[in-house]
Amino acid sequence: AQKVTQAQTEISVVEKEDVTLDCVYETRDTTYYLFWYKQPPSGELVFLIRRNSFDEQNEISGRYSWNFQKSTSSFNFTITASQVVDSAVYFCALSGPNTGNQFYFGTGTSLTVIP
Amino acid sequence: DTEVTQTPKHLVMGMTNKKSLKCEQHMGHRAMYWYKQKAKKPPELMFVYSYEKLSINESVPSRFSPECPNSSLLNLHLHALQPEDSALYLCASSLGQGAVSGELFFGEGSRLTVL
């Protein structure tokens, strides 16, 4: 079965703190893709990163970094020196042949950065 | 600015009304999607069009009727909706169907209220 678990429903941090959003997935596929999306209050889901199952290199983009570990089926997202503009709901998503190549979203983590 | 444009941004309708949601993209994408999102929940897939043909219908009630007039346009016709259909309706597009073709690009959504 395909499943994405984001155990943290809501997180609050003070501005400039680092924060890690957890994502754990389950899949029977050997080839699959993982994603992170940000949804600010405006509603649009903004693409952040796509990672395929054969690429376990961690990635850094500015204040954002991602840690992909197949051994623990996790794809965690860290924001360094958080800012108020980072306040949003963040969704982890999984896609692979067993989802009909469609996107299966986790339940999301609502992040509030307090100034 | 989003490259997927949805209109209207807000819609209020009665249960006997007929209305339509519209979505447009000019990125040359050949797959387009409708998602429904309730408050504090992840997006739920409704329909997928690939090369202007309906490829996935996630058992959506017939009061929702999708239409893809051409590769750039996607409509969702609404008729005899129920109050529980009130939600944010998100349109998305991707280069091809499925994550192997890349990520989903989302519009800002149409917030629907059914009275």
What is the topology?
The complex is a heterodimer of chains A (115) and B (115).
Chain A: E1 3-5, E2 10-14, E3 19-21, E4 24-26, E5 33-39, E6 46-52, E7 59-61, E8 64-69, E9 74-79, E10 88-95, E11 103-105, E12 109-114
Parallel strand pairs in A: 2-12
Antiparallel strand pairs in A: 1-4, 3-9, 5-6, 5-10, 7-8, 8-9, 10-11, 10-12
Chain B: E1 4-7, E2 10-13, E3 18-25, E4 31-37, E5 44-50, E6 53-57, E7 64-70, E8 73-79, E9 87-94, E10 105-106, E11 110-114
Parallel strand pairs in B: 2-11
Antiparallel strand pairs in B: 1-3, 3-8, 4-5, 4-9, 5-6, 7-8, 9-10, 9-11
Total beta strand runs of chain A: 12
Order of helices and strands of chain A: EEEEEEEEEEEE
* Count of DSSP H/I helices of chain A: 0
Task: Give the biggest sheet of chain B.
Answer: 7 strands, mixed
Order of helices and strands of chain B: EEEEEEEEEEE
DSSP strand content of chain A = over 45%
Query: How many strand segments of chain B?
Result: 11
Radius of gyration of chain A: 14 Å
> What structural class is derived from the secondary structure elements of chain A?
mainly beta
**Low-pLDDT stretches of chain A:** none
Question: Fraction of residues of chain B in helices?
Answer: under 10%
Helix count, DSSP H or I runs of 4 or more residues of chain B: 0
N/C terminus separation of chain B: 31 Å
Structure description:
- The complex is a heterodimer of chains A (115) and B (115).
- Chain A has 115 residues and is mainly β.
- Chain A contains no helices and twelve strands.
- In chain A, strands 2, 5, 6, 10, 11 and 12 form a six-stranded mixed sheet that branches. Chain A has a four-stranded antiparallel sheet with strand order 3-9-8-7, with no helix packed on it. A two-stranded antiparallel sheet of chain A has the order 1-4.
- Chain A starts with a strand and ends with a strand.
- With 115 residues, chain B is mainly β.
- Chain B has no helices and eleven strands.
- Chain B has strands at 4-7, 10-13, 18-25, 31-37, 44-50, 53-57, 64-70, 73-79, 87-94, 105-106, 110-114.
- In chain B, strands 2, 4, 5, 6, 9, 10 and 11 form a seven-stranded mixed sheet that branches.
- In chain B, a hairpin with a 2-residue loop joins β7 and β8 (73-79).
- The relative contact order of chain B is 0.33.
